[in-house]
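Moderator note: this is an archived Q&A kept for reference. The question asked for a predicted structure of one protein chain; the sequence and the answer are reproduced below.
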Amino acid sequence: MARIKWNAPEDRRYEYGIDQGVVYSKTAGRSAAWNGIKSVTQAPVGADVTSFYLDGEKFNQMIATEEYAATLVAFSAPDLFFEENDGLSYYGKGLYVDSQDRQMFDLSYRTQVGDGRGAGQSYKIHLVYNALAAPTGRAYSSEAGAPSPIEHTWSLTTMPIRMTGKNPSAHYIIDSRRVSKYIMAQIEDILYGTVSKNPRMPTADELIKFFKNAQVVTVTDNKDGTWTAQGPDDIIQFISWTEFIIDYDLAQFLPGSDDTYTLSTSATAE
């Protein structure tokens, strides 16, 4: 086992910033870019600890289920959000009716990850399901001089989604440092849309299956003692015309071997 090392550039990680917000309607099947998001302050609720004592000594403790909650601050929000999720109902011809039922929605946003090598190296995409927004008070005041935009603030609560093998959750995080560029591109095409497909929020089950079954590397047995590998350049690196290295966490060397490995069933071999 290697000795612990401190202060390696790649280990001096930090997170900062927020951008690329998107709101996804759960009733109209629409989505819209959320420009103007200033901050999302995550503040999970629950996770209360209950302690148990016997003969004056603590012998056990249990933690209640935790749920995602946050406070979102923005200078503006898309019309789609105001019309469905902020308690406004569009009557028509420019007329809005306040104090209406607020609908649940899905939300995605991106945060940046930097390290000792510099900022902008990586990022995380946050997916929030079944969110309900509660707006706080808004103060409109007289201006003297340059305009001062008001800040809109919403408290977000969520309805967790059940999933196999994990506690229910409404918050999923996709870390670009641990995901192939090939898979990340496919996920972003779903979230942000393409020239032929509208953006949408994948269901939680779809997201889990996507990561479980995503085919990134294909290794073909040519039946003549040779193999052919196909996949993204950041995973398969050729070191000669006949040799290649598979740099991916699905490839694991067999015990005691430096040149023989197995691929999990998430990759295919023909």
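Archived answer notes: Residues 9-179 form one domain.
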